[in-house]
Write a structure and sequence with these properties.
Distance between the termini: 57 Å
Helix content: 40-55%
Low-confidence stretches: 327-339
CATH class of the largest domain: Alpha Beta
Strand content: 5-15%
Strand order of the largest sheet: 2-3-4-1-5
Largest sheet: 5 strands, parallel
CATH superfamily of the largest domain: P-loop containing nucleotide triphosphate hydrolases
Number of helices: 15
CATH architecture of the largest domain: 3-Layer(aba) Sandwich
Length: 339
């Protein structure tokens, strides 16, 4: 069965299986959780179940199931932001609504998956409300978003919420090894990816572990660097928005490890345990209060980058701000506006 392929989400799969077998299926779901944890795979398995030729739970082998798996079933519609865009617009939702009121073309049910419901602009989200409130008898809707609060309350209130949890490290490691990645690298990727298989595979393709190893030196000496060195780092790390977001993600991992050590957590909880000595030294010299504010500063910078601020200026500000904390915690009282 298709649901057997969903790993690490036993609770969500169990709820859906019971609903399918009982015939008491909500018309609209909101699947929440981190990207790459199985939300889309589960949505496709659910859509396939509605039209499976052999059983209430998608068998995975009939023609209908195979078409759903390949995203080519005529009664399956997936809506995402257009290529190169960051939002789902009202024209896309209007097209979805028009299609929802037509009869299915091949099976008994049409399924509409909004992959990135949190990316609907307000007009698009509001246009969908009436259809979610009074859905056509032959249509089902699955919205996918990071969490309930990321979509309009008027949208989430019309959905059955089904929460997906981040994948465990053990599940991640097994899935990554199944992709042909060696055991040691799979373990590192699983710890870095924070429960997201999509992120783990992306890190593997883009050789992020190797990239991280190159940045350990600059990161470990960041608090002692002079202004010219910081400007050079900001220029290199701020070449473009994508590059800056990647390096701030790596910085967050680095300082998270230092904070974990400063709080006395065991080595097993570290992402980059091979650099234990350096991390331990920084943990002793920076202290928990400074580290918490450093992580907050990095998160603020990531938000600024995602909101299209000037990339190099954002990195300049971040690095000089982190330097102010130094190795003696002197930056503990700085506010975000303390530049």
């Amino acid at each position: 069965m298709l649901f057997d392929r969903i790993k690490g989400q036993e609770s969500a799969v169990r709820i859906l299986a019971r609903a399918l077998e009982s015939g008491r299926m909500p018309t609209t779901f909101l699947f929440t959780g981190p990207s790459g944890c199985g939300r889309m795979g589960t949505a496709l398995a659910l859509a396939a179940s509605f039209n499976c030729e052999n059983s209430a739970l998608a068998c995975g082998s009939c023609q209908s199931c195979r078409l759903h798996i390949s995203n080519s079933h005529p009664d399956l519609v997936i809506v995402r932001p257009p290529e190169g865009k960051r939002v789902i617009v009202i024209e896309q939702i209007r097209t979805l609504i028009e299609r929802a009121y037509l009869m299915p073309l091949m099976g008994t049910t049409s399924t509409f998956i909004v992959d990135g419901a949190h990316l609907m602009n307000p007009n698009a989200a509001n246009a969908l409300l009436k259809t979610l409130e009074e859905p056509p008898a032959t249509s089902r809707f699955i919205l996918i978003a990071p969490d309930r609060d990321s979509v309009l309350p008027t949208v989430s209130s019309r959905c059955r919420i089904l929460a997906f949890r981040p994948l465990s490290r053990s599940v991640m490691e097994a899935l990554l090894e199944a992709e042909g990645i060696d055991k040691k690298r799979a373990a590192l990727l699983a710890s870095m990816a924070r429960g997201s298989m999509a992120r783990g595979l992306e890190y593997h393709r883009e050789e992020i572990p190797e990239r991280m190893a190159q940045e350990f030196g600059p990161l470990s000496s960041l608090h002692e660097a002079g202004p010219s060195r910081l400007l050079d780092l900001a220029k290199g790390w701020g070449k473009n928005r994508t590059e800056a977001l990647k390096i701030t993600e790596l910085m967050a991992q680095w300082y998270r490890d230092i904070l974990v050590l400063s709080e006395g957590a065991p080595r097993e909880q570290l992402i980059h345990s091979s650099h234990l000595a350096t991390l331990r030294t920084l943990a002793e010299e920076l202290g928990s209060a400074s580290l918490s504010m450093i992580l907050e500063s990095i998160e603020d910078a990531r938000e600024d980058l995602e909101n299209n601020t000037n990339v190099e200026l954002t990195m300049d500000n971040l690095l000089f701000r982190l330097r102010k904390f130094g190795r003696t915690g002197q930056g503990n009282t700085l506010s975000r506006e303390g530049f």
